Give the backbone structure.
Amino acid sequence: MEEKTKLVIPKNLIYWILFFFAVVLPFALGLTIARDGVVKNEVFYSSMDIFRFIKFNNLQFFLIGYLSAILFFVISILAIMYHKTILKWLSLIFVIPLQFICGIAYTMQNFSLHTYVVYGKQSWKVNAINVGIFTALFTLFVYLIIFIIFLIVKRKTGYFQFLTSKIGILVLLCIMYICAFFVVYSPIMSIYKAVQ
């Protein structure tokens, strides 16, 4: 008697499919708006016009990129540590605005060349967003290296018990993000003040 073969769908397949679209589609939408502008009430607004209307200073634009990236990274780390379904879906939700911002800001290598072509004199605003995103990303990369070193030292000597615990991971990450803000913001963002 032949056994019926059952189609086994991986538990997280739907989540990862949705996550893929949450990464790709908002970025593509942001990039499209940056390139083509928007039409509202039969009036065309270029991407340069959109940013001309926004009266934030460079700190506020920096924080838009910095905090949106941090929120996604921290929630993703919490989801990995605690294996909570709600945290996993929250990370999916928070990646959507982050990717949309990345699309609008041309978050990629040599972003300043792209943003100057698209946004002209308003490019300093978009560059501030990019600096915030890349600062958050680089800080996370440095943190992972330090965390791996702590794990190795802990295994050999027993030190750094707290810093490798779940609470310690979050405390260290928060401290590094606060330090990164003060270290990076002042020297780098002063470059863009001249063009305001």
About this structure: The chain has a mean pLDDT of 81.
